[in-house]
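Protocol step 4 of 5: obtain the predicted structure for the target chain.
Materials: sequence only (see below). No template structures provided, no constraints applied. The aim of this step is simply to have a reference model before the mutagenesis design in step 5. Sequence pasted as it appears in the construct record:
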Amino acid sequence: MNLFAEIESEVRSYCRTWPVVFDRAVGSRMYDENGRSYIDFFAGAGALNYGHNHPELKRALLAYLERDSVTHGLDMQTVAKRDLLAAMREYVLAPRGMDYKVQFPGPTGTNAVESALKLARKVTGRESVVSFTNAFHGMTLGSLSVTGNSMKRGGAGIPLVHATPMPFDHYLDDQVPDFLWFERLLDDSGSGLNTPAAVIVETVQGEGGINVARAEWLRALADLCHRHGILLIVDDVQMGCGRTGPFFSFEIAGITPDIVCLSKSIGGYGMPLALTLLRPELDVWEPGEHNGTFRGNNPAFVTATRALELFWADDLLPAQTATKGDVVRDALTSIAAKHADLGASVRGRGLAWGLAFEDPSIAPKVATAAFDRGLLVETAGSEGEVAKLMPALTIGHDELAEGLSILADAVAAAR
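Step 4 output (structure tokens):
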């Protein structure tokens, strides 16, 4: 019997879509234990923006471990942490004129979200948080309360309270002025909506189906929050670190959130790391008020620092991401046109793209057909109706073209 099926929990999911045993991974390819190669358009759900086992990041990590450097550090001051903080200031914050404090909340995205929600409530003294339809922010209780997916919310087993969902961009008829209804509720003492502590938003909803918010919608949201004294939290866990082009996905809108959540590719090498960025005046934490045993993952600090040095000292990577994004968009547009009877449509930005189908049964068939042909693609959306493409930002043009060709064949086979 399959040992994984015999011993591992039924909660496992990705392995059901890709039922092989993977053994090695280099760049944008994964290899199973029999040596078969798969082009990776999954990239660790966005945790591998720089690909698998990038040689420069691997060298930095191995050198750090070989000299018996600190591995586990809680929130102690270490050389590795100091180097990361310096790199964040030099390559990310200072060039963008951003003045954020950096919090190490724990090593995963949901840790960053939980700390952001807790801090917003502490600062404002309010309880409710506004989130958006089809949002995904994590699997712990606070993060689940602002997540839209009913299946994931149902797993909590208890009521998820103190959160109010609102329509994401394009959810309602586009003739409805943005936030007219939201502002009316805030201004009306009879609406039943208490002034929230914060609004939390993804600029591009990944798990929700690659739903892209317009820059003007984001600006209107930021303006509303500012006028009503509501903190704006941007969850950039999946779409940050260059996934949409710029380092932060919200840069296109020219806004500066009060709090930013980072994880996944901030570690550079796929190692657990999360950061919560906050305006200095919001840093009202008492020492130890929000902590975690593994918030000091020093090997991840090392690979994160090296990734910032390699990829964010200039504008080359964002430019390459934009160029590759155009290639993906054009290929998906061609595929959608060939399968117009399936109601196929294209959505995305940078190197986060989705091919959506009116019949939600099609996208899983596409993912299966792609896997059979040597391509890893996952599904997204409230009904799994979107084939989701998130290749590494460093993928070569030939591999990108090969993967898109496989996808085209997979869509044809899935009809």
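Step 4 remarks: The two ends are 33 Å apart (CA to CA). Residues 59-311 form a domain with the Aspartate Aminotransferase; domain 2 fold (CATH 3.40.640.10).
Proceed to step 5.
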